[in-house]
Design brief:
Length: about 475
């Protein structure tokens, strides 16, 4: 079996279960092939310490049979590549927020410089028969840079966030360069069929690509295969977390403390894509429109800190705190607060117990590549008395989870009405929906995702030898 080389912005030790289901799934293949995981070390080197743009010290560590290779970033590279282009341009635009994008021309220069540096550093570790799997928007040009250095290995790419429609994508200065870079991969994977459709329409309209059979497109003297590979969770692992001591203790505490209430739960990073202010407005609408839920329904909203040095995140933090305070002030009683707002990270081992104790999960992002919270909530439920998932139709997970209550996250009344239905839903319907949803989760779990992508990459038709890839 060929060795797997995983490349991502950050590297996780697959031996540590706290790294999550993705690291566990990739870890299985990496362990079996004696693989390598390459990415940023997380360390930023200041100029006074010798941190020069386009250079970085390489660190290696052995994690069982897996080699972890990381590289430092200079302060300038971090600010232009990571904070600038990746999270200041690609993240907002790919989530349809052109108004929040900062198209500073220095950012794309840093983005290209770091991808070139990653390619140079990685090339020294590659073998001729390696299979390389590149992850996410930080590293879209990496295959093109590797090809320019003469690398001919099979290289696949998976985009974990959404791909926007062509007209939104075309607003990025240099968008044609960015999509051209994807044609240096042998296989490009997306979270949903909608994302794949956006790629196809852009490739044909903007890049004048020719559609071939087998989900392939030809442009720039290259052929790329593209497909939808919705990422899943490790269902068995999450079910076991629900039965582990920390999960059970959290469940018992929640059911004891809220024995007279119906719990609703939301778990998100504090990000403008998650639709948190609209969710709070919808909960307020629920209490106004359906007074039977007053002194009964309690929403526990966890909003983990995320990039709080960015103005857009400070704005949404202030708005969220204001809304929570307003709801509690207008509807709260001495023995009941409608909203329990927590602005910190809760340990992953405790979340299954919270999910299991909740009657409803409100997962209402304005746009999301997949959203694994929705799937983890379902996996944590008691099949005999399951909770109900209220899910945004603009989350990638909505394509698979059709038996959830799908809502428009921009429509506050729609969310409130669906939440009311969820709180009132009869047991038999809850069981039926949960059974159907779990069938999807089990058949398309994280192991299925990993295996199906790698199988497609191995079977992808190799590019014809001949004209070398020219540097972008």
């Amino acid at each position: 079996m060929a060795r797997l080389v995983v490349v991502s912005n950050r590297v996780a030790d697959p031996r540590k279960t706290a790294a999550g289901g993705l690291a566990v799934a990739l870890g299985e293949v990496l362990n079996n092939t004696g693989g390598l995981w390459f990415g940023w070390s997380g360390k930023v080197v200041e100029p006074a310490q010798g941190g020069r743009p386009g250079e970085g010290q390489v660190h290696t560590q052995q994690a069982g049979p897996v080699k972890l290779v990381t590289v430092d970033l200079s302060r300038e590279d971090h600010d232009t590549f990571y904070a600038g282009y990746a999270n200041g341009v690609l993240w907002p635009v790919f989530h349809y927020r052109l108004d929040l994008a900062d198209f500073d021309p220095r950012y794309i220069t840093g983005y290209r410089r770091v991808n070139q540096m990653f390619a140079r550093k990685l090339k020294a570790f590659l073998r001729d028969d390696d299979i390389v799997w590149v992850h996410d928007y930080h590293l879209m040009p990496l295959a093109a840079e590797l090809r320019a250095l003469g690398c001919s290995q099979r290289i696949g790419f998976f985009l974990h966030i959404p791909l926007p429609p062509s007209l939104i994508l075309a607003a990025i200065p240099g968008h044609d360069w960015l999509i051209r870079a994807l044609f240096a991969f042998d296989l490009v994977g997306f979270q949903s069929k909608a994302d794949l459709l956006h790629f196809a329409r852009y490739a044909e309209a903007e890049a004048h690509a020719h559609r071939l059979d087998g989900g392939r497109w030809r442009a720039f003297n290259r052929t790329v295969q593209a497909g939808a590979f919705p990422i899943g969770i490790d269902v068995e692992e999450f079910e076991s977390l629900a039965q582990a001591p920390e999960g059970r203790e959290m469940y018992e505490r929640m059911t004891r403390e809220y024995s007279r209430r119906k719990l609703l739960v939301g778990v998100d990073r504090l990000d403008y894509t998650k639709g948190l202010p609209n969710r709070m407005r919808a909960f307020r609408e629920l209490l106004e429109r359906y007074p039977e839920h007053r002194n009964s329904a309690t929403l526990i909203q966890i909003a983990s800190p995320s990039r709080e040095d960015v103005v857009a995140y400070n704005d949404i933090l202030k708005e969220l705190e204001s809304l929570c305070g307003s709801i509690n002030g207008n509807f709260g009683e001495l023995d009941w607060m409608p909203v329990r707002y927590i602005h910190r990270t809760v340990a992953r081992q405790r979340l299954p117990g919270l999910y299991r104790a909740s009657r409803v999960a409100m997962v209402t992002p304005l746009r999301d590549g997949m959203n694994l919270v929705a799937k983890e909530f379902l996996a944590a439920q008691d099949p005999a008395d399951p909770g109900v998932l209220v899910l945004s139709r603009f989350a990638g997970a909505a394509e698979q989870l059709r038996d959830a209550l799908l809502v428009n996250p921009y429509d506050v009344e729609s969310i409130a009405n669906a939440t009311h239905l969820a709180l009132q839903m009869p047991l038999e319907e809850r069981r039926m929906r949960h059974q159907q949803l779990m069938s999807v989760l089990r058949s398309q779990d994280v192991h299925w995702w990993c295996d199906s992508f790698l199988d497609a990459l191995v079977q992808a038709q190799p590019e014809e030898t001949g004209t070398p890839w020219l540097r972008l």
